[in-house]
TrEMBL record:
The chain crosses the membrane at residues 21-38, 44-63, 92-112, 124-143. It comes from Pseudomonas savastanoi (Pseudomonas syringae pv. savastanoi). It comes from the Bacteria. This is Major facilitator superfamily (MFS) profile domain-containing protein. Keywords: Membrane, Transmembrane, Transmembrane helix. Signal peptide: none annotated. One of its GO terms (molecular function) is transmembrane transporter activity. PANTHER family: BLL3282 PROTEIN.
Length: 182
């Protein structure tokens, strides 16, 4: 993130965070077709190849920014203890976990839910999930730019966390499951 100024970091982070929905959209389209047409060995082979390609791109494209700027020099001169001893780091880790848990819950169980409970066709499931993930990509990029423009990233993320909580709270009874009451 050192490449970006304070007013650009929300957009930069949101673009970086499109990897999960982008990979999910690609997988939702490609992997069911491969499984149906060729079998599961080919699904795992294709997944391994996608990972290899991503690793090669990372190796070619990722590099450290030029730290010759005065801000970078000032930051490097400051001595700090291990980041694991910093309470702020643990707060960030907890917040990231809380924001990612609903996303991964949906990514994990959405296809099964659509197939088993909605009796949808696999092609319709794949297309639906891919479209949802493309929407997630667009909304992430938009929200990153919006929070940069309005300087409200923290408030926006808190609102997203509360909306996710309320959404899951409301879905639990609809799915026939008891909601966890804290």
């Amino acid at each position: 993130m050192a490449w970006f100024k304070e007013g650009e970091r929300g957009l930069a982070m949101s673009i970086r965070q499109t990897a999960v929905p982008g990979g999910y959209a690609l997988g939702a389209i490609v992997l069911p077709y491969l499984a149906y047409t060729y079998g599961f060995v080919e699904v795992f082979t294709a997944s391994a190849l996608f990972c290899l390609i991503a690793a090669l791109f990372a190796g070619f494209w990722l590099y450290e920014p030029d730290f010759s700027s005065s801000a970078a020099k000032k930051q490097s001169m400051e001595t700090s203890a291990s980041p694991l001893k910093d309470l702020r780091v643990w707060r960030i880790v907890l917040a990231i976990g809380l924001l990612c848990a609903p996303q991964f819950a949906i990514l994990t169980y959405a296809a099964v839910f659509f197939h088993d409970f909605s009796k949808m066709d696999i092609t319709l499931i794949s297309t639906t999930l891919a479209i949802i993930q493309v929407g997630a990509i667009v909304s992430r990029i938009w929200s990153g730019r919006w929070t940069d423009k309005n300087k409200n990233r923290r408030a926006y993320l808190k609102t997203c966390a509360w909306l996710s909580t309320l959404t899951f709270w409301r879905w639990a009874p609809w799915c026939g499951q008891r909601a966890f009451m804290a």
